[in-house]
Structure formats: structure tokens, C-alpha cells
Design goal:
By secondary structure, the protein is an alpha/beta fold. The protein is built from eleven helices and eight strands. Strands 3-2-1-4-5-6-7-8 form an eight-stranded mixed β-sheet, with helices on both faces. The model has no long low-confidence stretch (mean pLDDT 94).
Length: 261
């Protein structure tokens, strides 16, 4: 893809997006610009051919797509810096949590194309779940953004009012899934495995379970039915987990995170 992209904010998420875009040379490093106040922290990207800068206004010159990846408290200042430099043909993509398109447009002060995208940290390895909403976008522009983030995982088009919910389920969800892997690893150690083997088995099993759902498109309970036999060890373990509140704890955790956001 020959599209030129400026990522404003080269922190963990911004750098991960840059890494994801460069996978399989989908976007050439020379067509990527990443900004950060302390540009020395972007040396790992510079060594790969990415343009790095500290001036956000200059960084967006000539970019087809501008991705804002700063912390929420920094977003107003950044938008003020670039508001007079954004061209009508440029697409503005925000991956900033909690900053609505109404706020973005109010600061910019005119009608532009704005996308909100909520990816997760697996974007760096091409396995993100990215939820996308847009205002003032054409179908062609929507397809462009979907293609960009589709190269880094799965994409779901949603209404903006669900963006906070997608943050919890998709972005916070990474931590929830990792906590399951950690707990399963600890259980594996208790029943006899060393740490490395237990972690490998737990992580690959979670990956396999997710792949079954994504590739077969069947309800998780249908896949569960295939491995639960009468009076077997699987159903015994599942029932004990439910007695201890496994499903309800996860649901409550998701709802609590949503209330917090």
C-alpha cells in the first residue's frame, strides 16, 4: 500500500500500530511518520526506516491518513496543534479512549472526515480486534480504514455509542484473557508441569479455542459439548468453576470496567 500515514503519539499503542502496519511490508516504513516528544524513544522504528519527528503539525504534511494515538489528557493540545494544518482530503483516525468525534470536530472547528477506532495491543502481531465508527466518511474512505486495520487483525463496524463498550470487551479483554492464561498456568504447575510447559499449554489452548469459534462460526457451547462426556473430567471441572462463580465473575468484571470507563 502506497498510502502515507502519520501516527501522532509513538507510545505503546502508536508504536504497536506502526509495527502492525509494517508487517509483511503492507505499508512501507518510508511512508510512515511517527511522532513523540522524546524522539529518542523511537530509535527502534527509525532503524527500520520509519520517519520520526517531534513536531505534530509538520508530521501530517503530505499524509493521507492521520492517526492520533496519544493519552486522552493530551488529545486537546494535539488537536489544537494540527487543526489549521489538516487538509479536507485527509482522514483523521483517533484511537484515543473516551474522546468522541463531537469533541474532535469542535476543536478542529470545521467538517472533516473522522474515524474512531478501538484496537487492542495485539495489533503489533496482526491479531487485534479493532472496532470502527465514523462521521463524514464516504464508503471508499470507510473501506480504506477497514483495510488498514484489517491487515492487523479483525475489524467490526459499530455505532460510536458502543465505542466505550468495545474498549472494555476488546481492549480490556486482552488483560482478562491473559489473566485466564496466568491462572491456568498456575493450575498446571499445581498438577505437575513446570512453568514454561504449563504456560505453553495454557496459551496455545486458548488460541485454539478462539480459532475454533472464529473459523467454524459455531456457538462456544457447541464446541464445549464436543469435549464434555458423561461423568467425565471436563464437565466436572466446568461445573466446579461455575459453582465458584467463574462466568458470573467475568461478566461482573466486564460490567464493572464499563461503569468505570
Amino acid at each position: 500500500m502506497k498510502e502515507k500515514i502519520a501516527i501522532l503519539g509513538g507510545g505503546n499503542l502508536g508504536a504497536s500500530i506502526a509495527e502492525g502496519l509494517m508487517r509483511d511490508n503492507f505499508v512501507s516504513p518510508k511512508n510512515l511518520t511517527v511522532t513523540r516528544r522524546k524522539i529518542e524513544l523511537l530509535d527502534h522504528l527509525k532503524k527500520r526506516g520509519v520517519q520520526i519527528a517531534s513536531d505534530n503539525a509538520k508530521a501530517i504534511i503530505g499524509a493521507d491518513t492521520i492517526i492520533i494515538a496519544v493519552k486522552p489528557k493530551q488529545s486537546s493540545e494535539l488537536l489544537e496543534q494540527i487543526r489549521n494544518h489538516i487538509k479536507a482530503k485527509q482522514i483523521l483516525v483517533s484511537v484515543v479512549t473516551g474522546i468522541s468525534t463531537d469533541i474532535i470536530l469542535e476543536i478542529i472547528g470545521r467538517k472533516i472526515t473522522v474515524f474512531r477506532v478501538m484496537p487492542n495491543t495485539a495489533i503489533a502481531i496482526g491479531e487485534s480486534m479493532s472496532c470502527v465508527s465514523a462521521v463524514n466518511a464516504t464508503k471508499a474512505q470507510s473501506n480504506r480504514v477497514a483495510k488498514l486495520f484489517g491487515n492487523m487483525g479483525k475489524v467490526a463496524q459499530i455505532e460510536e455509542e458502543l465505542m466505550d463498550a468495545s474498549t472494555v470487551l476488546g481492549a480490556c479483554g486482552i488483560a482478562f484473557a491473559l489473566r485466564f492464561i496466568r491462572a491456568a498456568t498456575q493450575g498446571g504447575i499445581e498438577i505437575g508441569f513446570d512453568y514454561q510447559t504449563a504456560e505453553l499449554i495454557a496459551a496455545q489452548t486458548v488460541k485454539g479455542a478462539a480459532s475454533l469459534v472464529l473459523q467454524r462460526g459455531r456457538h462456544p457451547e457447541r464446541e464445549i459439548d464436543l469435549v464434555t462426556t458423561p461423568q467425565g473430567c471436563t464437565i466436572a471441572g466446568l461445573n466446579e468453576m461455575e459453582h465458584q462463580g467463574f462466568s458470573s465473575s467475568l461478566i461482573k468484571g466486564i460490567v464493572t470496567s464499563f461503569s468505570k470507563i
